[in-house]
Amino acid sequence: MAPARDVTFDGPGGPVPGAAAAPEGKPKGGVVVVQEAFGLTGHIRNVCSRLAEAGYLAAAPALFHRQGAPVLGYDEIDKAMPVMGTLRADEILSDVSATVAYLEAEGVPSGKIGIVGFCMGGTIALVAATELPLAASVTYYGGGVEQGRFGFAPLAELAPGLRAPWLGLFGDQDASIPVDQVERLRSEAAKATVPTEVVRYPDAGHGFNCDDRSAFEPASAADAWARTTAFFDRHLDA
User: Fold this and answer.
1) Is 113 helix (H, G, I), strand (E, B) or coil?
2) Which of 13, 38, 81, 188 could, after both became Cys, cross-link 159 (CB 3.0–4.6 A)?
3) Which one-letter DSSP state was computed for residue 172?
């Protein structure tokens, strides 16, 4: 599996640093990968590489680039929270749009671009699918269901306006996103005019997909990844 390489995306507010990984041969489509609260970590780079292995051109913007692009350890949540708190809705969407433009410039048709996000990136992945012309969206344990983040409205309010098929993946043991919030999000997303699905993992908590975290739950992560690639195959490689 080839490592993701450093790239720069051209954004309306200036250059956006990031990482990208390309498959061998023509991509099935493109995927924007949105980081956790800890920056453009090795885990997020590895997600790009795994998507490339699955046949997709994957690109991840470093959303903390205005704050010096720090990459923090998973035990440094006290440092991550203040940095995350400086993010703004318009800047986030600008960086995601710049990443989409990069995928298009690399030859991916606009109708074959999706997004996947983890933790705060999972929140952004749902929001982006209400704001931007994406073809599929996957959220891993994205919070802000009942209280908006970064200047965005709460996800429960936004979900009925999803413009792209959406898959949400959550752990029942996630104290930061209670099951009742996940179920409310499921109900609100079902009002959208596009297909939506929520999958809950009884044994998983927040961050269950990341094998660099103590929260890693292998069985749930394996199932979620299989669902993610199948979802993109269904909606991007049609």
Assistant:
1) strand
2) 188
3) T
The model carries a pTM of 0.98
pLDDT digits (tens, 9 = 90+) for 177-194: 999 999 999 999 999 999
Give me the mean pLDDT over the 15-36 stretch: 97
Q: Which residues pair with 9 in a beta bridge?
A: 16
Considering 206, 212, 233, 235, which one is annotated as catalytic? 206
205 neighbors 224 (Cβ within 8 angstroms): no
Domain containing 171 equals 5-236
70: pLDDT strictly greater than 90: yes
Instruction: State the catalytic residue, choosing from 65, 95, 174, 235.
Output: 174
Domains in the chain, number: 1
Q: How many residues are there in the chain?
A: 238
Residue 207 has which token pair? Answer: 């961050």
Nearest to 40 by CA among 104, 120, 126, 132: 120
Judge contact between 228 and 207, C-beta under 8 A: no
Q: Is 174 a catalytic residue?
A: yes
Q: Is the pLDDT of residue 238 over 90?
A: no
Nearest-CA neighbor of 166 among 91, 77, 224, 235?
235
pLDDT band for position 85 (cuts 50, 70, 90): very high
Q: Is residue 10 annotated as part of the catalytic site, yes or no? A: no
CATH code of residue 166: 3.40.50.1820
